[in-house]
Amino acid sequence: MRDEVRDALLAMLMDGRLAAGTSVSIDQLSRDLGVSQTPVREALVEIEATGLVHRVAHRGYQVAPPMTAQQAAELADARLVVETTAAQWATRLLDPELLPNLRAAHRAHEEAAGAVREWDGVTRDRNGLPIQLKPYFEADWRFHQTILDHCGNDFLRRMVGSLGASVQRMRQNVHRGPVDTELAVAEHGRVLAAVETGDPQAAADAMRAHIEAVRERSIADA
């Protein structure tokens, strides 16, 4: 039950139903989700560890405000440590399922980016962003998750749980839309090409270049 409630709350945080900087009503959420207040409280405690919500003394939980430029930079630094290592290890290990899965993830990312480029300029989500961005962001992270899933280290994978949520929080700041999607797809393509060579250092370098580029774009949007 708690896991289901947590996933529902995360979805609300990502699509703007729980807007940045607003108070969280446990009573209202329990009614909306049709559950008691206990699993809602437990889920919020778990989500607090990701930084998406925080507890304020005598006021309960609040949704975290959008990331500052400094926070976006620090997130990128953390991703550089974890994800360049994962790319290097995954390429060195070269699990037989890595390349087909990574190619499929890249194709899905390209298709999602194409949908963003075809945006009608009108339809927006609760955050005021093109409605196609949510599936695009999911496809984007799936590419990264695929590498992490094949890095051969369970501890490294677990470390990325809160990073993934923070990446989603960072994306609430995004203003670039189709421009950023084209850049990200091209950068992912270079990561894939490096992994295909079987050169661990080349894969790590390509991932580093991608995350550093994301860092610059994120700071500009913050």
Automatic annotation (TrEMBL):
The UniProt record lists the keyword Lipid metabolism: no
Lineage: Bacteria, Bacillati, Actinomycetota, Actinomycetes, Mycobacteriales
Annotated GO MF terms: DNA binding; DNA-binding transcription factor activity
One Pfam family linked to the record: FCD
Xref: SUPFAM superfamilies: GntR ligand-binding domain-like, Winged helix' DNA-binding domain
Domain HTH gntR-type: residue ranges: 1-66
Protein's UniProt name: Transcriptional Regulator, GntR family protein
Domain of life: Bacteria
UniProt keyword list: DNA-binding, Transcription, Transcription regulation
Gene3D superfamilies assigned to the protein according to its UniProt record, in alphabetical order: GntR ligand-binding domain-like, Winged helix-like DNA-binding domain superfamily/Winged helix DNA-binding domain
